[in-house]
Structures are given as structure tokens and as C-alpha cells.
Design brief:
Elements (H helix, E strand, L loop, with lengths): L1 H10 L3 H4 L7 H16 L1 H5 L10 H18 L2 H20 L3 H10 L5 E2 L10 E4 H8 L14 E2 L2 E4 L1 H20 L8 H24 L12 H11 L6 H13 L4 H11 L4 H12 L13 H6 L16 H9 L12
Helix pairs in contact: 3-5, 3-6, 3-10, 5-10, 6-9, 7-9, 11-12, 13-14
This protein binds iron/sulfur cluster.
């Protein structure tokens, strides 16, 4: 909002004063870093973050935003930039969902929408009318057919929208606004700020790696299993006991390469006398369909080494941090068979 921007400008934050994490700025910088960190780790969870309730902490919420923008710009990392903009936009949209129509209107017009409230009762559930260029500006990126202009009521160049639709369009407006703010460069930042920037870069690299691992090809080639996983698999398949970590590594590995939770469960059931209910529970928990909803990836090689599960690394393991990487490399030796054409 313009008022918040003016308020921050009036504070006259000086880059030089940020050096050394002065006591005054420390909580603001901590909060700014936390905002980005949470956005990087989980956009959906960030969207659910409630605003600060205590008025004496409003300043923390307001001032930490431009400082977060500064930190994100400092990273020069496009992944952090787009993820942060998306997370803040989703949070704004979630918060707007619980606001009165008048507040939505105020925020929309802050972006120059020229929107108005619809008072005609016969036009319910529509609560807002916006000009169609404003609608198109924000809705063109949405692929759902409900967002096609033809599927909306339009009278005299105005598109009629529900409250939920307005907050969704505002989400897009906020995302583009923040991305615009992040599309700049800062020549230099104080060293203590750079320490925070570097932590965020590291977190971004880890998150990207995690996403890459989760996007494994959904083709299962047993012969490409790395030796650590193959070892546990053989033990379990032979009905011999395997450690808890070994079973966890095997289960999360199988799920990560595209074997369904049901198939993994059937495998364990067929080769052992594990308690069925517990086995199903554990498999579904690791698959993320139960409990916290977190889908687990296999433990890293370092952990498997420490627990004696990595006993005979292979050439494809060189430099790999996770068995999934080794598997992906070995998979290249097993080209996919293309269906033969009938002539
Ligand atoms: S280096 Fe990693 S992938 Fe290779 S055998 Fe050891 S734990 Fe498995």
C-alpha cells in the first residue's frame, strides 16, 4: 500500500547503518531473512502465515518487507526471486480472502484498477466490477477455462467478479509488482548482509537439488539401483532383517523413482511377515499421503555411509550426494525401448 511505502521512506533506512547488524536493525533483518527462508522452503505454508497481531510489532512486518526485497535482490538468484514473489503474493491473496469487500477494493485501486463495488442485488454473487483490460492484464496467465473472458459476465466494458476472483487476480498483481521490485541490481552490500545473502543462496541450491531429485524419471530399472539400495532390497527380498534406516532408504527410494505406494506395500507384504497395518502406515507416511504430507527423499550418501549401508560405491557414485543421483546416472546405460512400428 502507498501508505506503507511512504512510512518506510520516511524512516530513511540507510545501507551503511545496516553494517554490523546494528542492534536497531537486527530484529528487522532477522525477520526479513526468515520471510525469504520460509518462502523458499514451502510456498503453501508461507501463504498461511498469519500477520502479526500485536500492534507494537506492525513495524516489524512492514519494515522487514523492503529489507527482504534488498536481500533477495542481493542474491541475484532467479529461483529465489520468483519463489519469493510467488510466496508473498499467495500470502497476500490468502489474507485478502478474510477481508471485507471494502478492503479488497482499496487494495485493488491501490494498483490503479479503478474497480467499483456492485450494489445491484440481482447480480449476486458478483461483488466487483473491473474494466476488461484490467481483467485481461491479470487473467491471461491463468489456464483454467473459468478465467476465459467469454465465461464472465461483461456489461458495458466491465467484467463482474466475485470476492474470491478479485483476491486471486490481486495475487497475480502482487506477484508481478514484487517481481518488478526484484528486477534490479545492488552494486554492493555490507559484509554482514552478504553473510545473510550467502545463506539464502545456499538454501536455494539445496531446495533446487531437492526439486530435481523429486522430478526423477518415472521409469523403474532394477539393474540401475545403486549398490546401497540393491543391498537392502536383496536383504528384504530374502526375508532377512534390515535396519530401520535401510528400510526407510529403500522405501523412499522406490517411491521417488515412481513406484506407487501400493506396489511398495505389496513388495514388503510379499517378502516378510511385517505387520501389515504398520507397513502400510509407514509406506504412506513416507509417500506423504499421511501425516505431515511431506514426501521423503532417500537419506543422503553421507548418512548411508555412517550407518554402514553404503558398502561398495560404484563409478557412477562419484561425487553423488544421494542414491537417486547415482540411479539417474546408471539409468543412462539402459535406454528406453521404443515401440517398434508395424509396417
Ligand atoms: S555412494 Fe551413495 S549411491 Fe553410491 S552406494 Fe554409496 S550411498 Fe549408495
Amino acid at each position: 500500500m502507498k501508505e506503507a511505502a511512504v512510512h518506510v521512506r520516511d524512516l530513511g533506512i540507510d545501507f551503511d547503518e545496516l553494517e554490523g547488524d546494528s542492534d536497531f536493525y537486527l530484529p528487522f533483518l532477522d525477520k526479513a531473512e526468515k520471510r525469504i527462508e520460509s518462502a523458499l522452503l514451502d510456498v503453501s505454508a508461507y501463504a498461511k502465515t498469519q500477520p502479526i497481531d500485536d500492534p507494537k510489532d506492525y513495524e516489524l512486518e512492514i519494515v522487514s518487507f523492503p529489507l527482504a526485497v534488498m536481500l533477495v535482490v542481493g542474491t541475484e538468484d532467479s529461483f529465489i526471486k520468483s519463489r519469493y514473489a510467488l510466496a508473498e503474493a499467495k500470502r497476500a491473496s490468502a489474507l485478502l480472502d478474510s477481508e471485507e469487500k471494502e478492503k479488497l477494493l482499496e487494495v485493488a485501486n491501490n494498483f490503479g484498477w479503478g474497480a467499483r463495488l456492485v450494489s445491484d442485488f440481482s447480480l449476486q454473487p458478483y461483488a466487483f466490477a473491473v474494466s476488461f483490460p484490467v481483467f485481461l492484464r491479470n487473467a491471461t496467465g491463468f489456464h483454467d477455462k473459468n478465467w476465459k473472458l467469454v465465461n464472465h459476465l461483461m456489461i458495458d466494458g466491465e467484467v463482474y467478479l466475485t470476492e474470491r476472483e478479485v483476491s486471486r487476480l490481486l495475487e497475480e498483481e502482487v506477484r508481478k509488482y514484487i517481481e518488478g521490485r526484484l528486477d534490479t541490481k545492488i552494486k554492493s552490500l555490507p559484509s554482514t548482509i552478504m553473510a545473510r545473502v550467502n545463506r539464502l543462496r545456499q538454501l536455494s541450491a539445496e531446495k533446487r537439488e531437492q526439486i530435481r531429485l523429486e522430478e526423477m524419471p518415472e521409469r523403474v530399472v532394477m539393474d540401475a539401483f545403486p549398490s546401497c539400495i540393491k543391498g537392502v532390497y536383496d536383504r528384504v527380498a530374502a526375508g532377512r532383517p534390515a535396519s530401520h534406516l535401510g528400510r526407510f532408504a529403500l522405501t523412499s527410494f522406490m517411491l521417488s523413482i515412481g513406484i506407487s505406494a501400493e506396489e511398495v506395500f505389496k513388495f514388503f507384504r510379499s517378502v516378510s511377515d511385517f505387520n501389515e497395518r504398520m507397513t502400510r502406515y509407514q509406506v504412506e507416511h513416507i509417500a506423504g499421503t499421511r501425516g505431515s504430507g511431506t514426501k521423503y527423499t532417500p537419506p543422503n550418501c553421507a548418512t548411508l555411509r555412517t550407518h554402514g549401508i553404503c558398502v561398495s560405491p560404484e563409478p557412477d557414485c562419484r561425487g553423488a550426494v544421494n542414491p537417486l543421483i547415482c540411479y539417474k546416472r546408471k539409468l543412462k546405460n539402459f535406454p528406453e525401448e521404443k515401440p517398434t512400428e508395424n509396417k
